[in-house]
Predict the 3D structure of the following.
Amino acid sequence: MLVHVPNVLTAEEVVYCRNKLTESEWVDGKVTAGQQSAKAKYNLQIPHESELSKELGEIVLRALGRNPTFTSAALPLRVFPPLFNRYDAGMEFRAHVDNAIRPLPGTGFRIRTDVSSTLFLSEPEDYDGGELIIEDTYGAHEVKLPAGDLILYPATSLHSVAPVTRGSRWASFFWSQSMVKSDTQRTLLYNFDQSIIEIRKLLPDDHSAVLGLTATYHNLVREWAEI
Ligand code: NI
C-alpha cells in the first residue's frame, strides 16, 4: 500500500530544515547502503551521527507523532532516526530493496524495516527527474511530492530514484518497524480506520454501528499486532 501523507512538516519547519541543511557537510550516501545497493547508489547524505542529523530527525519524529494518517498507515512500533539525503544533477539510486534489519544507532537494538518513508524537502518545480519509483503488483508508481509531504510504502518494494537532470532534490527518509508486519493486514486496518473516520462524520459517536466498527478495528489490531 502506498499512502501519501500531506503536510507532515509545516512550511516553517521545511524552511528551518532546509536552512540548516544548507550549512551542513554532506558525505557519500553509500555509508548507509547494503552491499548490493551501494553499487546502485549515487547521492549525498548528512552524517547520521551528527548533531544536526539528530536535531532535524527530532523535528521529523515530533511531526510524525502528531500525524494521525501516518500512525494509521504505519502502525509504528519503532521508527529509525530519520536520515537526510540529496541528489544533485547526475545523481540517482537505481533499483534496490532496502536492508530488512537495521541496527538502531547507539542502542544495541535492531529494527525490522517494514515500512519505508520519504519526506520531500524540495518543491517539485525546483528539480527535474528525481522521481521516487516504487514497484508493486500493479506496476511502477512515480512519486514526486510538495515539500513537507511524505510517501509511505512497504519496505518489501523494489524502488529507485530517477536521475536528477536539473536542480537538487532534498529529502528525509527512514524506516519503521510496524506493530503489524504484513502489508496486507496493515492495508486492511488502514482502510478500515479511514472508513470509520468517514462514517463518524455521518453518525453520532454513540451510534451502535460506530461502536461496533470501532470495537472491531481495535480487536483486529489486538489480534494482529506484535509489540
Ligand atoms: Ni531504498
The first helix runs from residue 11 to 23.
